[in-house]
Design goal:
With 153 residues, the protein is an all-alpha fold. The protein has helices spanning 3-42, 55-60, 69-77, 81-87, 89-111, 122-138, 144-148. The longest helix has 40 residues, at 3-42. The mean pLDDT is 86.
Length: 153
Amino acid sequence: MTEVAQITQQNVERKWLQNLVIKGTPIVTAGAVAATCAYVALNDPDSKTLFPKCGFYALTGYYCPGCGMTRALHHLLRGDVLKAFQYNAILVVGIPVLIYLYVWWVMWAFTGKELPKLKLNRKVTIIILCLVGIFIVGRNLPGEVAAFFALDR
């Protein structure tokens, strides 16, 4: 094989591997997410000891932003949106954004085209961060409103 043919063959192999990674990664990710969602939907996190406990909560006694996400996902997948929202509002509100970002990724990987990017101006970003902060702090305060956002405390 000539040197030019060998370089061309290497370029073809490199391009094939690059396409495999670019197109395969979203597919593998979808499979992993689907398997995880199926497991969480079929197994109640409150009754199983296989799900890990939150280390932050174990150390401090306070809920972290991620506390309740597994239970929220379980209830969301079973159609109980209100209970999912009570376990972790950030997850419930964030899922549509994650779905949009995944669709954007798949479109880019398979067609090279992109969906419009999510653009948040400074004011909206500050409002979102303030609401997240209020949620994180508020769910750790005593009272009925806080208990609504920290179900089963």
